[in-house]
Amino acid sequence: MHRAEPTVTSNIYLDMLQLYAVPQFPEGVIFQQDGAPPHYGNIVREFLDKTFPQRCIGRGAVMAWPPRSPDITPLDFYLWGYVKQHVYSDRINDINHLKQRITDVIHSVTPDVLTRVWEELDYRLDMCRATMEPTSNCAKQVCKPREFSFYLVRMSPVYLVSLLSCDRSKVHHDFTDTL
Q1: What InterPro entries does this protein map onto (predicted)?
Q2: Concatenated DSSP letters of 124-142
Q3: Which of 137, 120, 160, 151 lies closest to 62 in space, CA to CA?
Q4: CB count in 10 Å sphere of residue 81
Q5: What domains does the chain contain, in order, with CATH numbers?
Q6: Using CB atoms within 10 A of its CB, is residue 150 exposed (0-12), middle (13-18) or buried (19+)?
Q7: Cβ(86)–Cβ(129) under 8 Å?
């Protein structure tokens, strides 16, 4: 896991992408990110446009990610709650203990859990397609009929997502007890 000690800027984020994330992605991956200011800097957008031509989802990209959409953002609907619950389950002694606890919790996320998270995302996108007006941004861009399958890619020690095939019979999990 790469921890950025200073505030993450576009330059730091670009380094993280170039050094840690992108080298581990398979060919043809579709890249998605939120609209955080460091993700939207000119140098980052230029790199993403060149690295993921017509395969980038996010603010200023070919496909826009709906703003304020935690229901279809796995980091929001799963990971941050899981991390917070487990990191603060016991008293934290100091900043180094906190960093170690965060690292340990991230390492505890298994490929099976991530498979279920991405099946849940697929279900949520199906619901988006079924319930949104055809003219909405979400329905037109993010929730359009499946054009690709998802696979999990392990980025040591953090699991990153790139594309994952879902068994439709196992879609929609209750994450409250199992994750």
Answers
A1: RNaseH_sf
A2: HHHHHHHHS-TTSHIIIII
A3: 137
A4: 14
A5: 10-165 (3.30.420)
A6: buried
A7: no
